[in-house]
Amino acid sequence: MRRYARLFALQLRTSLQTGLQYRWDFVVEGLTGLLFALLGLLPLWVFKRNGAAVPGWGFPEMLVVVGWFTLLKGLIDGAVNPSLIVVVDHIRRGTLDFVLLKPADAQFLVSTGKFEPWRVLDVLVGVAICGSGFVLLGRWPGALDLAGALLLLVSAALVLYSTWILVVSAAFWVVRLDNLAYLFMSIFDFARWPVTVFRGAVRFAFTFIIPLALMTTYPSMALLGTLRPATGALAVAGALGYAAVARLVWRRAIARYTSASS
Amino acid sequence: MIRVAHLTKEFRVHRRDAGLAAAVRSLFRRRYDTVTAVRDLCVEIVPGERVGFLGPNGAGKTTTLKVLAGLLHPTGGEVRVLGHVPQRREPDFLRQITLVMGQKQQLLWDLPPADTFELNRAVYSVPEADFRVRRDEIVELLGIGDTMRKPTRQLSLGERMKCELCAALLHGPRVLFLDEPTIGLDVSMQHTVREFIRVTNERHGSTVLLTSHYMVDVLALCPRVIVIDRGRLCFDGRLEELVRSARPEKRIVVKLERPVERADLEAIGHVVRHDAAVAVLQVGNASLREAMARLLAGLPVADLTVEDPPLEEVMRDLFAREAGAAGADADGTGGPGGGSAEGPEEGEGDE
Amino acid sequence: MSRGPSSLAITLRAFPTLLRVGFADAVAYRAEMVVWMLTTTMPLVNLALWHTAAAGGPIAGFGQTQLTAYFLASFIVRQLTGCWVVWEMNFEIRTGRLSQRLLRPVSPLAGYMAENLAALPLRVLLSLPMALVLAFVVGGREFSHDPAIWLMVVLALCLAWLIIFFSMAILGTLALYLESSSSLWFMWQGLFFAFSGYLFPLPFLEAHAPRLFHALHGLPFYYQSGFPLELMLGRHDRAAALHYLGIEACWALGLGLLLAVVWRAGVKRWNAYGA
Description:
The complex is a heterotrimer of chains A (262), B (351) and C (275). Chain A has one domain. Helices cover 77% and strands 0% of the residues of chain A. Chain A has 12 helices and no strands. In chain A, helix 4 (59-93) runs antiparallel to helix 7 (120-137). The two termini of chain A are 36 Å apart. In chain A, 45% of the residues are buried. Chain B folds into 2 domains: 2-243, Rossmann fold (3-Layer(aba) Sandwich); 249-307, ACT-like. Chain A, domain 2 (Alpha-Beta Plaits, 2-Layer Sandwich), CATH 3.30.70. Chain B has 13 helices and 13 strands. Chain B has helices spanning 20-28, 61-69, 91-94, 113-123, 128-142, 157-169, 187-204, 215-221, 239-246, 262-266, 288-298, 311-328, 344-347; strands at 2-15, 31-45, 50-54, 76-81, 97-101, 175-179, 207-211, 224-229, 232-238, 249-256, 270-274, 278-284, 301-307. In chain B, helix 7 links the parallel strand 6 (175-179) and strand 7 (207-211). The two termini of chain B are 30 Å apart. Chain C starts with 6 loop residues before the first helix and ends with a helix. Chain C is globular. Chain C has one domain. Chains in contact: A-B, A-C. Chain A binds chain C through residues 22, 24-25, 28-29, 31-32, 35-36, 39, 42-43, 46-47, 49-50, 52-55, 176, 179-180, 182-183, 185-187, 189-190, 192-193, 196-198, 202, and chain C through 31-32, 35-36, 38-42, 44-46, 48-56, 59-60, 178-184, 186-187, 190, 193-194, 199-200, 204-205, 207-209.
């Protein structure tokens, strides 16, 4: 375990060094991240000024959701997506062999292949937006609510990561997947608003098929203290099951890659 | 150390004919062909040996190497490396081997090789002290003290290959699988890499299994060669025996005082080259003495030397003969094992 | 001393061939194109929000159906005006492939333009399903019935394409100075998102931030998305439409000239320092 923690730290440092290789891009990237996070607030401001409302969600509550979304997006863009792009590249160039020959867990190695350090800014901005929502509400989440929300954050991260593993596994069958990362991200954009803005079949899909509700709406509700514990528990269980399936598929994919029937 | 018994590796390749109609058809019904990359291969290698693995493109060299390293599962037969079943890829096994692929690189593109070294140290959990000693030794042997501090993307091919070798050997593996380690390098760089491999083997007693297209590599490095073609073992033994068995003939180079008739030469042996001043004849070992006597007696010979045929030609001959034999026995695989574009040799990395 | 045909003449003569090759290329990459199209989810994300928001009554004159029309059409406009030249330039500059383009007698900019234009027929084709959805869900009610306005819509879209292509190419050219300019492009993209009417129709700002609202009509972003959309929906009369078309044309021309200047200087620099 300690060995993996050290490895993790080393991979993180390597990513930072790589980022610093292109100085100009590195600086602009940081600024752009900040700009994007703040621009995300603009529609919300327009929304409020026009006196619009989403049933069940006041403006401060919407802020909490958007803040949570920003936080999670920072997490994906910073820790999940870059590695996805790296591993797809490995598969295409045939250098995944080197990873498989390392005496460490291959899933761990590919999942920590690359980080985008600047995305920490998004996470911080997200926390700030969430916080400002609570300032407007004039109250703070209880310890229990916070714990529940954190638990759901872990679940959401797990679901995202598992989706990622599934996507990578798919790359063993279909080689050209560069675009898939972008597709993945653009679908995640639907989690920007509370799931209640969708109706009918779309809401069902975003709750159960592509569980976007689990990622932003439920944790926000937990923070706000409006989530029923049973729903939360179900969400956590679902996330765990999903992760187990993803791990299984990954093992199958690697076995297939090495037994290489074609 | 390495024991391979009746190893067979088959690939299933999806067959699609050219053209749009075929593409549409293949959506509904896929046809598969089975390509045998390695067939019934039996080899034993003892610790400390340097073995050269020869064969034409698509012969199954890379496939065999990958099976031995645990990257491919064998279809049949048994493989043991250091007492392990490679395909299980147990950490204890992986820590003792290494694979260098001349055409692929593990170095991080944007960072200096030294950072990749550091990363590998952590991945292989090499103790700091061992790591230092080993790194300094390799760095000195290859002369990459400065190179390893420059970003990989700015290195030349040769510098990169040397750093690749270093990255692959830092954990002190006991078995080295080297797949075309000198490909694309210039002559002096090839020499450096070869010498490095030899010194590593002699100092640490590690076992080396090497494939190469360059005969010089094999000639200089490997007392023992294994030749495979179309997945089958053709030869396993000492290099000189290979030359003798493949072509039990000698070459007589004759310098002539004045031009002679070609027919006069053909009466003595097979004419390889013939012009006004020089003739090269090829004759069997047994008739060498007689041929020389007849040459000296009947023709205006100024000078005469006897040589072995060049290794490159020996190999070409050997494979041509094997190809003829394979064509004759109708075993139904059709065509060379991996000679086509989708063959496992070239294509497998991209799966 | 006789001189060969001018490079402009060569470029003009080669352009149809460049287009044909570009089209074949686009067809070959059709699968990627479909995936790229599917990544355009933003209009739908925002439609969901504003549609819900307008349940209580129209916002700034936009009712629910009109918002649906606005955002679905926005999806199509985005498809039709899409370019990727900034990525290609960044890639070719980083890998040194630009040199090969510079060796040809045809200007690389013309080459890039042909490649991006040649994808248009396929993009139109791929947008058809969304157009059908639009026709089915909204029908003709929300759109302008004035043929003159539609003529101007076409013109506005052409100019929008030019504005997007030119600004992308300018930012791509900056990679000649900066090694990589893709993060600069992301920044520009962020401004586009916020100020073009892509996230919300700009009239939403009119009552609450009138100064910003008017200022945005002077920037190029509005003309890349909001303006053609508002035209289609019949929110401008002919006189106003002509006024805005004029501003749009100025931007297209200005960016085109800026590109020419930046490109010339950049190539000179590239030739001096090499790749």
